[in-house]
C-alpha cells in the first residue's frame, strides 16, 4: 500500500463507518460527474496520456471551482468473463474484455456544472481517440454503466440488448415503479 495518496484511511470497516469517514464528509457539499472510456489494454503510452489528461484538466478547471480530478485505471484479468457462458445485460457482447477507465470530476459552484460536464465529455472523447490511434478497436465499445455520464444513450451501454431489456422491464414492472428511481430508464 505504498501508493501515493491524497488521503489514507484504509482499513476494514462497516458501511456506516465508510459513510461517516473523512472522505465522505469532505465530498458532502461537492458537485460531481463521472464519465468513462472502455479500452482493451493499458499500454504505457495510454497511461502517460491519462496522466497528461489529469494535469491538463486540473489546470484548465481550477478557476471553475474544480477541487478534485481523478482518473481510475481498472485492469481486469482476461478471464473475467469466463465465469459464465450465459448472456448478460452488460457487457452486451462477451467476445472481448473491456477495461473501464473511470473519470471523476468534483467542483463546488453550481454555475460550473456545464463547464465540468463538457470537460468530462471532452476528456473521454480525447482518451478514446488516443486508444483508437494506438490500434484499439474501441470506437463503438460499450461503456460501463456505473461510470458513464448521465445522458449516455442506453445503446451505448447495453448495445443490442436494449430491446430485450425493455421487454423484461415491461413484463416485470408494468406500472413503472422503477421509473421513480434514479438511473437509466428502459
UniProtKB/TrEMBL annotation:
Pfam families: BBE. GO terms for molecular function: flavin adenine dinucleotide binding; oxidoreductase activity. Gene3D superfamilies: 3.30.465.10, 3.40.462.20. Residues 155-177 form the Berberine/berberine-like domain. Transmembrane segments: none annotated. InterPro entries: BBE (IPR012951), FAD-bd_PCMH_sub2 (IPR016169). This is Berberine/berberine-like domain-containing protein. It comes from Rhizopogon vesiculosus. The lineage of its organism: Eukaryota, Fungi, Dikarya, Basidiomycota, Agaricomycotina.
Amino acid at each position: 500500500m505504498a501508493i501515493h495518496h491524497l488521503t489514507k484511511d484504509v482499513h476494514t470497516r462497516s458501511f456506516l463507518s465508510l459513510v461517516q469517514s473523512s472522505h465522505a464528509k469532505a465530498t458532502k457539499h461537492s458537485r460531481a460527474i463521472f464519465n468513462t472510456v472502455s479500452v482493451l489494454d493499458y499500454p504505457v503510452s495510454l497511461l502517460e496520456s491519462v496522466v497528461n489528461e489529469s494535469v491538463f484538466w486540473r489546470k484548465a478547471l481550477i478557476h471553475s471551482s474544480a477541487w478534485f480530478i481523478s482518473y481510475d485505471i481498472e485492469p481486469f484479468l482476461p478471464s473475467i468473463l469466463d465465469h459464465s457462458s450465459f448472456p448478460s445485460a452488460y457487457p452486451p457482447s462477451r467476445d472481448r474484455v473491456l477495461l473501464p477507465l473511470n473519470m471523476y470530476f468534483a467542483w463546488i459552484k453550481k454555475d460550473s456544472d456545464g463547464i465540468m460536464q463538457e470537460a468530462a465529455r471532452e476528456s473521454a472523447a480525447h482518451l478514446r481517440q488516443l486508444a483508437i490511434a494506438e490500434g484499439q478497436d474501441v470506437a463503438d465499445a460499450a461503456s460501463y454503466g456505473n461510470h458513464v455520464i448521465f445522458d449516455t444513450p442506453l445503446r451505448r451501454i447495453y448495445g443490442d440488448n436494449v430491446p430485450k431489456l425493455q421487454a423484461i422491464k415491461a413484463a416485470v414492472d408494468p406500472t413503472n415503479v422503477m421509473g421513480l428511481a434514479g438511473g437509466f430508464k428502459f
